[in-house]
Every structure is written in C-alpha cells, then in structure tokens.
Design brief:
This protein is α/β, with parallel strands linked by helices. The chain has 13 helices and 19 strands. The radius of gyration is 25 Å and the shape is globular. The model is unreliable at 156-165 and 174-186 (pLDDT under 50). Bound molecules: flavin-adenine dinucleotide.
Length: 489
C-alpha cells in the first residue's frame, strides 16, 4: 500500500525518467572501461552495443603467452597482441582500492585472496562484474571496430558517410562563434564499421553441423553516440637512443615480456622506472647475468631498492649512446657490453579507427582537445573517451566518467558551452574523481581511499620487491574492509 508521499515520489521519479533522452550508443572495447561504461549507459536507459575484438571480457587483464612478431612493437603491420601482462604480474594497487566503487573487489574462496592478487584474479573479477550486471548480452565478441566517422545522412548507404573536410571547418566556425550554446543540440551521429571474425563464429556452428563459410562479416551501423574504451596499454612507446640502428644486441618492449627465462645468463638493460620496469628488473635478477636498471630521475641516496640488490642489479641514469661493438654507455659515465635492451617506457594512445576530420588529434602522447579528459568540445556529447588519464586509480575513474557520459547523453546533466569547454582545465586523481562525482550526483570519494592510495604509492617506492606482501596500514585496511563488506550486503 502506497501512502501519499510514496505516490508523490514515484510520480517525480517517473517524471524524471520521462524527460530522459535515450540514445543508441556504441561502446568500443570490453575491458574494465567498456564494461562499466556499458553498465552505466544501460542503467541510464540507453540502448548499448559493445564491440570487442577479443573472445572474452577483461581487455589487458587477459594474459596471453603469445608475443608480437616485432618485439619492439613498431611495425604497424605486425600481428598484434592486446595484453601486456607478464606471467608473474600481481596488481600494484591493493584490491580495496582497485575495484569499482559499488562492486568491491573482495577475496573469494578458492581464488587468489591476496591483497595484491595476480592478473588472473582481476580477469575473474571483471568476468564476475559482467555476469552480475548481465553485460555479456550486450557484447559482440570477435568484432573489431575498423572505422568510426561522422554520419550526416538519412539512410544506411555508404554515400551518406561524411567525407567532406568542409564539415570540420563548419564545426570549428560554429564552435568558435559559440553558436552551439547548448552543445547537446548538435545531432552529430556516427557510423561504426565493424568486422566480425566469422571463423570464430563458424567454429561454434561446426559443432551443430551447419555449413561453414569463413568470410568475415563487415557491417556499418549508425549510432547516436560512441564511447571509446579501447585501452592504452598496447601500442609501445620506445626510447630513442643514438646509435641504436647499428647496435648488434636485441631489443624488446615490456609489452612483449612474459617470463624471465629467455634472459638467462644475459646482460640486460631495463629502461624506465614505472611499475613494469621495476617488477621486471627484480624478476630478471634471478636468471640474468647482470641487470642494469636506468631511469631519468634516480636518487640513490633516497632509494632502498638499490642497496638491497647491490651486486646483482646496477642502477644508472639514462643511456647516453650505444655503439656497434655492443657497448651501452650510460649518462653516469659507466659503460658495459649488453645483450638485450628492454624498453619499459610506456605506451602511446592509438585510435586507428577514428576519423574526426582532424578535430580530435593525438600529439605528443596527448589526446585533445578534450573537456575534462572525456568530451571533445566540438563533437560533444556524441563522442567520448573513457580511461585516458594515466596517473589514476583506473576502475573507479572509469565508473565515474561513464556515469557522467550516461547522464549527459540522457540530458539529466548538461555540459558547458563549447567555448567554455575549450578552456578545459587539467586536473588529476581524486580532485578529478570528485568533480566527476559532483556532475552526476554521486558521493565524493571516501577519505580512506585517498589515504590508502598515498600509503600504497609510498610503500611501492620504498619497498618495490615486498610491498605487495608486507604493509602496515592496518587501520585503513580495517576501515576499508568494513566499508566494502557493508556495501556488498
Ligand atoms: P583494456 O583493458 O586494454 O581494454 C580495451 C579493450 O578494447 C580490449 O578488450 C580490446 O580487445 C578492445 N579493443 C581495442 N581496440 C578495439 C577495436 N578496434 N575494436 C574492438 N575492440 C577493441 N590498473 C590497476 O588498477 N591496477 C594494476 O595493478 C594495474 N597493473 C597494470 C599492469 C600492466 C602491465 C598494465 C599494462 C596495466 C595495468 N593497469 C593496472 C592498468 C589497466 O590497464 C587498467 O586497470 C584497465 O584494465 C584498462 O582498461 P581499459 O578498458 O581502458 O583497457
């Protein structure tokens, strides 16, 4: 039995829903970003299709022992492998922080229950998430997005796909003169061209004795909006070093590193002091003859990492140059003969399928212009990106960005004018999370998350080889666990 107040609440609720706009949205990628984007878009009443090139959800967390045929990952025609996971990888953030805000990453019996679990546990968590929210039904697997472009036709013919560069000029003019005060009014739609790998589908059909025909299926579909969640840990960025063209040793990017064994008895230089560079150097110590770890900034007096492994691991400033006789010369004046250079130097953004007539560009490893790292002002809100910032706690950020996109597309929330968006301000980490949360009426990030993140960053730097198993933030852990368990029940 409803009382008057309940009835009023229901009426307000349904009224709110009635004014919401529902869009047909394509999400590209079913990794951690694409999955939560799909959930938030669907929750907000949008019609969602997720295109995923692979056969499973999880993206970069799906370990693949295969490596690319170009170990540096420079050849655009190489056979590409999406995942950059190495076999031994354990998370570099505690599970309490890593999970989505409303779907805690809790230990499950019979699985890896550690605070910093291995990669398989994260892949299982993402699979659980997809099943819990019925997202698998939305995903078109083995389907690669080959082209995303602006569509202004009224039919489904290829001729309707806009290829006219004057369109960009028009948008720029309109944007600059601020004609698009309400940016949501500009109905830019998108054509998404996909290629479905029939072989994978046919394999399943074979079992049912259907006739087999292995032609890929190419399809164009028109969408009101496209959310790009294709990840940015697959396109290696490689250090440029004078003399490399004639240096006779081997080179590899960490994207193609899986296990230490191939480096047995080798002299290895590892470039880059990010989490992968540190993990891989520590792993190589057990098999390699020498490991030379080098980075831009290196303060021996402050770092405990170096003295602990003295003799096995040597730390240097960056490589100055390499020579034809196989020698590597470091900026600190030391030189040695080296067998392998391992570039742990990060990744580049890459959107090979995206055609925005130059409105969105990728330059110097930055994507822009973007309002709050999500919307290109001239194409907002119909085009958006989830997960671009690097120095963040990824899953909660993906969730908040996705909520924001979903609200903007449904018109429950609005964007500033194009002009104001163009004056996009860069802000990072939790301030940015809280800004996103405020946009869609979500709670700000809990204070224990901020404190735990700071502790995690600090101990990872101080104790890179033990921080995953030894910690002392017990108070924070208690607070986090009681919060997350309450959330679960
Ligand atoms: P991805 O996981 O890369 O997913 C993108 C998906 O898009 C993939 O499934 C891909 O197949 C698909 N795709 C790409 N292009 C197309 C296309 N054209 N058509 C169709 N589908 C396409 N984060 C943490 O929180 N904790 C950690 O400990 C941690 N450790 C990491 C260690 C390593 C070595 C790396 C590389 C990353 C680590 N990260 C960590 C960051 C991690 O990348 C993010 O947590 C997150 O998983 C990224 O999700 P994503 O969905 O943005 O991208």
């Amino acid at each position: 039995n409803l009382n008057g107040e309940d009835e009023l609440q229901m009426a307000i609720g349904s009224d709110k829903n009635a004014t919401k706009q529902s869009c047909k949205v394509a999400v590209i990628g079913a990794g951690a970003a694409g999955l939560v984007a799909a959930r938030e878009l669907q929750r907000e009443g949008h019609e969602v299709v997720v295109y995923e090139e692979g056969e499973k959800v999880g993206g970069v967390w799906l370990y693949n022992s295969d490596v690319e045929d170009d170990p540096l990952g420079l050849d655009p025609n190489r056979c590409s492998v999406h995942s950059s996971m190495y076999a031994s990888l354990r998370t570099n953030l505690p599970r309490e922080l890593m999970g989505y805000l409303d779907y805690p990453f809790l230990p499950r019996e019979g699985r890896d229950v550690r605070r910093f679990p291995r990669h398989e546990e994260v892949a299982s968590y993402l699979q659980d998430f997809a099943e819990e929210f019925n997202l698998l039904l939305l995903v078109k697997f083995c389907t690669k997005v080959e082209y995303v472009g602006i569509y202004r036709g009224d039919g489904n013919t290829e001729a309707d796909i806009v290829n006219d560069s004057s369109f960009k000029q028009q948008l720029l003019r309109e944007g600059c003169e601020d004609l698009r005060e309400d940016s949501a009014n500009l109905e830019t739609r998108w054509v998404v061209r996909t290629r479905e790998r029939r072989q994978a589908v046919e394999k399943e059909r074979d079992v049912l004795n259907f006739a087999t025909g292995c032609e890929d299926q190419v399809t164009d579909v028109i969408f009101d909006a496209v959310v790009i969640c294709n990840g940015h840990y697959s396109q290696p960025r490689v250090a440029w070093i004078p003399g490399l063209e004639k240096w006779p040793g081997k080179q590899m990017h960490s994207h193609n590193y899986r296990i230490a064994e191939p480096f047995r008895d080798k002299v290895v230089v590892v470039i880059g002091n990010g989490p992968s560079g540190i993990d891989i150097s520590l792993e190589l110590i057990s098999v390699a003859k020498e490991v030379h770890f080098c980075a831009k900034k290196w303060d021996l007096s402050k770092d405990l990492f170096w003295p602990l492994h003295e003799g096995k691991l040597q730390c240097h400033l960056l490589v100055e140059l390499v020579t034809e006789d196989g020698t590597v010369h470091f900026q600190d004046g030391i030189s040695c003969h080296v067998d392998v250079i391992l570039h742990c130097t990060g990744y580049l953004y890459s959107f090979p399928f995206l055609d925005t007539h130059g409105i969105v560009t990728v330059e110097n490893s930055a994507v822009g212009p973007l309002f709050e790292h999500v919307f290109p002002p001239l194409l907002a809100p119909s085009l958006s990106f989830v997960g671009l910032p690097f120095k963040v706690v990824p899953f909660p950020l993906f969730e908040l960005q996705s909520k924001w996109i979903a609200c903007i597309l449904s018109k429950s929330s609005s964007l500033p004018s194009t002009k104001d968006m163009m004056a996009d301000v860069q802000s990072f980490e939790f301030e940015y999370d809280n800004w996103l949360a405020a946009q869609c009426g979500s709670e700000p990030i809990e204070s224990w998350r901020i404190k735990m993140y700071k502790v995690a960053q600090k101990i990872r730097k101080l104790y890179p080889d033990s921080y995953r198993d030894i910690w002392d933030d017990y108070d924070l852990l208690d607070e986090a666990q009681s919060y997350l368990l309450k959330l679960k029940t």
